[in-house]
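ok trying again, last paste got cut off:
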Amino acid sequence: MNKDLVNFIVKKYLRFDKKNPFISISAILAFIGVAIGVMVLILSMAIMNGTAKEFERKLFTMNYPLTIYPKSQDSVNSDLLFSLEENFKNLKFSPFISTQAIVQNGDHMSGGMIFGVIPSHESEINPIFKDALKDMMLNKFDIITGVGISDKLALYSDSKVTLYFTELNPAGFSLMPKMKRFNYISSFHSGLNAYDKAYMYTNIEALQTLLQKDSNIYDGIHIHSNDAFADIEKLREFLKDSSVGVVGWWQQNGNFFAAMKMEKTALFIVLMLIILVASLNIISSLLMTVMSRRKEIALLLSMGASSKEIKSIFLRLGTIIGFSGIILGVILGFIGYFLLDTFDIVSLPADVYGSAKLPLDLAMSDFISILVGAVVIVLLSSYYPASRATKIDVIDVLRNE
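nice, full thing came through this time. structure:
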């Protein structure tokens, strides 16, 4: 194949065609369309990934990577905790007791879930709890609430609040709910409104006393793991002969993350159509070039140029337009990523999305998928006009033109 001839013709056809300006305009629009499509795909996938990871991080904190729960009464106890700590040095464990309660301050009331925890254990696996506790001690009847509860009840440091529990105490001829005065010491902000308005923490000894539970019995054990998918299998193997179970965060919130994954896939397909639509301009531009250059193509073929060389000319024209658009789109995408990540161009309502800053995280797999998808579309768009260029009837064209 004569590469010099191919390169000469490609350069000639890439110049702006003053006689047929619409052909050049169509090629420019194709170039811009592919660039915009790639840029939008990069930013959209980064936002989708960032949002999913932000929710995952917050759900990790409040729901924990792994949780051990009892299948029979008294099966989660201090002996089990000691055994787990001895056999899984890489994991961190925090036993808990939980129950529903109503908290009251003056005329204001709010309901939620209260967890009795061992402060030293919980601080190791829950950074939000640790930040709320700071350097304070969580004594027996102290309480930490979400900011939603503290704001609603107008709580301040050392406020006295009354907690009503679902368990009942006999009182004469009737039953009264258990109640106890607690000392409010601090509040936490998880970034998710549902937790900030419902969760409370106290010392595990307080709930053991109020609920009349043995000090060695727990409702469950929260576990911090850096590789929850692998560790859950090891724990299941270790606990297979016991009457306890273990559940992962993805099982507790499976529907939510499945919906986000489906939304991300659907968005990727829809936005890839932008590149597909832009590639139609590549097809139309090349076809119009073929039609307007029929005489030149016929002359080249009659002078000894091969069909392979003619096909290579138009295939290279399409790939130059398309690949240039992809490169520009990648550059614009990363510039947009940098600007959105560095400056507060887009501000979100924190109570709705869990963060005021737009979360961004472009996975390498998504970036490669975008590039591969765009390249395939450009190559397919260039191939058809290139193959049409070789099917010109040389004799017919030269006789008529």
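cool. The chain has a mean pLDDT of 84. The longest strand covers residues 174-188.
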